[in-house]
Amino acid sequence: MPKEKPELSDAMRAKMSGKTPVKNPINGTRFTIAISSAKGGVGKSTFATNLALALKQVGCKVGLLDADIYGPSIPKMFGINEKPKSDGQKLEPIVKYDIQCMSIGFLTDQQTPMIWRGPMVTSAIKTFTQKVNWKDLDFIIVDMPPGTGDTQLTFSQEIKMDGAIIVSTPQEVALLDVKRGIKMFDKLGVKILGLIDNMSYFTGDDGKKYKIFGEGGVKKTADEFKKEFLGEIPINSEIGKTGDNGKPIVESNPNHEISKIYLEFANKIKSTYL
Ligand code: ADP
After folding, report:
1. Residue ranges in 58-194 assigned as alpha helix (H)
2. Is there a contact between 158 and 50 (Cβ–Cβ < 8 Å)?
3. Ligand 1 centre and the CA of 89: distance in Å?
4. How far is the CA of 232 from the centre of ligand 1 (A)?
5. Which of 239, 220, 236 is closest to 171 using CA atoms?
6. Which atom of ligand 1 is found nearest the CA of 71?
7. Among 98-102, 144-148, 182-186, 259-263, whose mean pLDDT is lowest?
8. Which of 37, 46, 142, 238 to mutate to test the pocket of ligand 1 (most atoms within 8 A of CB)?
């Protein structure tokens, strides 16, 4: 039996031939911002969706790309059940809340697990970055899968990435992985815009702040690696409820104190790039 040749990415081929890999911007997009977390369940998709909506509110044209092939969240968080149209060449993003969206979850049954090998993931990411009709976007917010795997590599090596934000919770186990994430982006030459401390505290009925997952760890990690600490987002049940209902808090209640935090982040990103 002839041996199957392993599939090589463009970046790997370029590396082997000694050439500098070409990094393409995402078609139709000015700036690509990755939202990353080292661990699952820390609130990365919640942050990505609300940041995208906040950027729209401050006047930017925004796309949201769900790059979490194994665990897409955007269909649920944005309440999207339709399938994207295609002309056989390109996929049309689905527009919801004035945001152009794409997710593997639009193309598959929500409960079907994606059992794919690395090269298939790489190919899906390429389709989403090069074969979607993204139109006139100032920013595309990319919701990355957790960890440091194929998707991160494909993005960092083959696509022009303008910045990454790392979301973490304050627990020690999460922070360990954050350090790995910082090192990965540094190694791949992607600028880290900063770290977010999500679920940093809970305000009780008595008005006191309870730091149930520990205190100051994300900021300490940012300082240790000379990265910016972007700020804290407290635990708030409205965040969970609105996300589960398909209309994230920034869209459903833009005057909420939590929405104002996201709007501040959005203004900061807008003034950094535009
Ligand atoms: P990840 O993308 O990192 O896996 P998610 O964004 O899916 O994490 O969030 C995991 C769960 O935590 C969701 O149910 C979400 O609504 C909830 N969540 C995220 N951030 C907060 C927060 N600051 N306060 C309360 N719940 C939150």
Report:
1. 74-77, 118-130, 150-158, 172-188
2. no
3. 35
4. 14
5. 220
6. 4
7. 144-148
8. 46
Contact 58, 260 (CB under 8 A): no
Strands 202-203 and 99-103: unpaired
Backbone φ and ψ for 112, nearest 5 degrees, come out as -85, 125
Q: Are 142 and 33 in contact (CB under 8 A)?
A: yes
Nearest of 238, 204, 248 to residue 47 by alpha carbon: 248
**Domain ranges within the chain, ordered by starting residue:** 23-273
Instruction: Encode pLDDT of 71-112 as tens digits.
Output: 899 999 999 999 999 999 999 999 999 999 999 999 887 667
Give residue 46 CA to ligand 1 midpoint distance, Å.
6
- Report pLDDT digits (tens) over 184-216: 999 989 999 999 999 999 999 999 999 988 888
* pLDDT tens-digit map of 204-253: 999 999 998 888 899 999 999 999 999 999 999 999 999 999 999 999 99
Ligand 1 environment, Cβ below 6 A: 37, 40-46, 73, 198-199, 233, 235-236, 239-240, 243
Check whether domain 23-273 has CATH 2.60.40.3140, yes or no: no
